[in-house]
Amino acid sequence: DAGITQSPRHKVTETGTPVTLRCHQTENHRYMYWYRQDPGHGLRLIHYSYGVKDTDKGEVSDGYSVSRSKTEDFLLTLESATSSQTSVYFCAISESSGLRVTGELFFGEGSRLTVL
Amino acid sequence: KNQVEQSPQSLIILEGKNCTLQCNYTVSPFSNLRWYKQDTGRGPVSLTIMTFSENTKSNGRYTATLDADTKQSSLHITASQLSDSASYICVVSADPGGYNKLIFGAGTRLAVHP
Question: Of B89, B100, B105, which has the smallest distance from its Cβ to A45's Cβ?
């Protein structure tokens, strides 16, 4: 199994509070991603990173920010959580070849967030 | 619009039986197609990755087929086991090498009963 650890695995919070999810990898992969998974929907990309301090938006980035200060850590922050952000969040990593990403995409175990 | 549609949405089979899951896509330009298995409460795990030139690819009891002309793929599971109970997700890459262009299907939830 790829060395990906997400924390916390479960969190319940209230509307308007800030939340930070952490993804830690031990594979030294260049690319890291945050996805959300909701019933009836495929996984949707929130943000991704292609290197330290290099990040870009995905298709559902509104209300989320990310930071990557070290190769191994990728943080997802909800500045002011809303009920629509109740979801399961998955971190993923992949190797890179130049500026392209090839090969396997490895996922963490997920973080279940409930916003009341 | 790039889309990946999977059918059926859910499926129940008896242990030992075979089953086939379908994936239709409208994604362009096509790069590759992947099948993932996701156990309940776990992250997805890759089963196969197929490029444009590959028609069939096997991984143990899992066999994926790809028809790039009709934009259809199937995942066939042979001699099902209880451990095959999971969601199976079809993922299509819309850009050569661009992971930010991955389009995920909603998945087929398979239940294998004894």
Answer: B100
Rounded (to 5) percent helix, strand, coil in chain B: 5, 55, 40
- Hey, what are B69's tokens? 């002309």
In this predicted model, what pLDDT tens digit does every residue of B5-62 receive, in sequence order? 999 999 999 999 999 999 999 988 788 899 999 999 999 999 998 888 889 999 999 9
Taking one residue from A and the other from B, the number of pairs with CB-CB distance under 8 angstroms is 53
A42 and chain B in contact, CB less than 8 A: yes
**Alpha carbons A56 and A71: distance in angstroms, whole number:** 15
**B106 with A41: Cβ contact below 8 A:** yes
Question: By the 8 A CB rule, do A24 and A33 touch?
Answer: no
SS3 A4: strand
Residue B30 or A87, more confident: A87
Note the pLDDT of residue A101. 44
